[in-house]
């Protein structure tokens, strides 16, 4: 079965799984990538393994291993999990030739539609874990009056004097998420975060807001508007896509309503500019963020399955 036939069967199968998934065309070979395929009876799989690198001081480095081998797959037939299992066998054979055994800075990652469950058991058996989720919130137009006020909470655009507060909140967030495998704390993280956040301070069109609780700055939310989200907009069947980059609340303000107020503010801003869907990443194992985001109207759309090291063993 050729890759286009597999892609057509994959698309037909996923159309019954999740209406918010985008179209997924056949996998076309790209320079440096490795094409893989497998057949199991009447079922078939096609895959593309792509290797990427990130510098330890890059903005992206906390959210990934420095070297990542990512497999994108298309599955079709009555037993897609069997074809996927055979595809994973071929991918493992490839990884053993290119990934240093036991290197925790080399990861194998598979990003799959969250509701496409066939193949999950096969990933678990091979040592993969569901680590990260892209969650989606379809547009939900608010009333003209906006979200209800939270007693004691005031939300305002971030200014230059808020940099230290914002950096501290982001560092606290990363330290917490590092416990669940979705973040790696890097040397020089404070300087990297400061350089990134400083771009969002004092903007005419704000993308970063501070929440004050009875006058104390104890929370923040950062967003990307449609027009800035081409890097992730293709993950959902919508034209105008927003991205909620981060939401952080200081420990003393947890369960005070600050986080809910910040999320409601971000959603109002997204709705006002005609956003059709909002995406965000969150650590799946995080016992705080997972229930919080789903209470705000999000649900899983894509799940990142990761094995780190990519190949187990010693150097």
Automatic annotation (TrEMBL):
InterPro entries: Acyl_CoA_acyltransferase (IPR016181), Bact_Acetyltransf (IPR050832), GNAT_dom (IPR000182). Residues 153-315 form the N-acetyltransferase domain. GO terms for molecular function: acyltransferase activity, transferring groups other than amino-acyl groups. The keyword Acyltransferase applies. The keyword Lipid biosynthesis does not apply. Keywords: Acyltransferase, Transferase. Pfam families: Acetyltransf_1. CDD domains: NAT_SF. This is N-acetyltransferase domain-containing protein.
